[in-house]
Automatic annotation (TrEMBL):
CDD domains: fer2. Residues 201-374 form the FAD-binding PCMH-type domain. This is Xanthine dehydrogenase small subunit. PANTHER family: XANTHINE DEHYDROGENASE. GO terms for molecular function: xanthine dehydrogenase activity. Residues 7-93 form the 2Fe-2S ferredoxin-type domain. Its EC number is 1.17.1.4. It holds the Pfam family Fer2. The keyword Iron applies. Coiled coil: none annotated. InterPro entries: 2Fe-2S-bd (IPR002888), 2Fe-2S-bd_dom_sf (IPR036884), 2Fe-2S_ferredoxin-like_sf (IPR036010), 2Fe-2S_ferredoxin-type (IPR001041), 2Fe2S_fd_BS (IPR006058), Ald_Oxase/xanthine_DH-like (IPR016208), Beta-grasp_dom_sf (IPR012675), CO_DH_flav_C (IPR005107). Keywords: FAD, Flavoprotein, Iron, Metal-binding, Oxidoreductase. It comes from Fulvimarina uroteuthidis. The lineage of its organism: Bacteria, Pseudomonadati, Pseudomonadota, Alphaproteobacteria, Hyphomicrobiales.
Amino acid sequence: MSDTGTGTIRFLLNGEPRAVSGVAATTTLLQYLRESEHLTGTKEGCAEGDCGACTVLVSEADASGGLKRRALNSCIQFLPAMNGRAVETVEKLGAHRGAAGAASLRDAMVDMHASQCGFCTPGFVVQLFAAWDAGKLSDRQSVKDQISGNLCRCTGYGPIVEAGEALAQVPRADVLGEDLALARQLSQIQNGAVFRYEADGPAGRQLWFAPENVDDLADLYAAHPDATLVAGATDVGLWVTKQHRDLPILIDLSKVQDLQMIEERLNVVYFGAAVTHAEAFATLADIHRDLGETMRRFAGAQTRNAGTMGGNIANGSPIGDLPPCLIALASRVYLRKADDIRAIDLEDFFLDYGRQDRAPGEFVVAIETPRLDANQRFFAHKISKRFDSDISAVMAAFRLTFDGDLVTEARLAFGGMAGTPKRAEAAEAALLGRPFDEGAVRAAQVALADDFQPLSDMRASSAYRLKTAQNLVERFRLELGDGAPARLSAFETGPRTRGVA
Ligand SMILES: Cc1cc2nc3c(=O)[nH]c(=O)nc-3n(C[C@H](O)[C@H](O)[C@H](O)COP(=O)(O)OP(=O)(O)OC[C@H]3O[C@@H](n4cnc5c(N)ncnc54)[C@H](O)[C@@H]3O)c2cc1C
Ligand code: FES
Ligand code: FES
């Protein structure tokens, strides 16, 4: 493994080169922008990725030499992660490209009266601009989806959505040449195979490593098994901003190209662990539209741009949205420690609350997910207090396999019902060998009370969780029938007949 880091964080800020050293590795990008650069247009609202006030645009060269550009919450991104990247703030929005879009958006925000106190405005502007630039703004719903991670306490959203709709009408210019030039410029400030940064942190020396390939990552993590892996930092960022944890050694996964692949072989999809939720979105929606709908409601756009599939599994959360979906689909997870690679069923990865089947120095490499067979039916539904950008009270995902009318295999997986994402074995047994009719649903609903004794917490009571889980089995039956759609969904195009996977 070559270690060619310079100990200096090199990046572009609004087109100008920066070389930063001597700041703690867990300094957030937002702290740096406001306190060192005095770029105070970027605001701090929540400091936990929830409000979007701190949104900036971050560009990087991708594996094919092109440019990857995304809006991120700067409050939970660590500054060393910007090494080799370009950061654009509201002050210079559109300067690199898309100046017409930025000007139109500014005019629309003024014309529609879309700003009152103005605190949220820079975040909305950067997020809307990023969505327009990426070709994601079309109709009103798309505007709402794109700003679901931005909060405004004054304006009432209507005028902001209208400004977004106006921006959606502005044609995008061809900026391929400019993108390639920026990608080339960024590739010149890369630091080699492993970027290494060291500085005093709040409680002693801190080390940051950013390997670019999986072998270097395996070597580094074997040498530092007590290091904190950081992928999208949508959990780890909060350990610093909210829990003030000391993280002496950090290994950044966001530059490891091998972990960012989505590959398909023989009806099985392999998602690299560092594939972001935004990158996985289309493939998941293609496996089944309920997965698309789940991802649409997963956090907000900026969090989906950063958070990874591997992080959603490795954090071991009992209320993560993807694990129940992936367990219902019979996914497997690949783990690597030094040169040893093993694959286990994803459901076996979650041992107990806060405990996973992962040894020190071992990391998640990929998730292997089979597509649905013609005789399989799938259902996923997230129940949360708020429709957009909220954590689940209950997450349900079901896959049934049929031989004619009879259920030959049942996989009912739930989040929020136990200390881990978990299958409902008694309810599954109650469905086997019979048609999926009202009687079968009743039997499964009774059995669910044997499977789970859920907790009461601020999101939901135990009784609510159990009742909801039972009702979702019935909803699956209704949605498979010829009835009217049983929920609001952007992916809903009509009744869910048996023939629709
Ligand atoms: C505003 C907000 C909204 C959110 N909404 C949702 C939501 O709707 N649904 C939901 O499920 N989650 C939600 N989350 C939680 C979080 O975004 C997800 O769990 C995300 O997938 C975590 O991925 P990450 O890459 O950011 O993880 P990180 O924060 O980088 O890491 C999380 C944990 O996983 C470990 N880790 C990361 N990658 C690996 C790997 N490859 N191998 C081993 N360990 C690894 C890290 O060491 C750490 O312990 C939300 C978070 C925020 C801040
Ligand atoms: S300050 Fe609220 S998302 Fe960053
Ligand atoms: S205009 Fe005041 S918070 Fe949005």
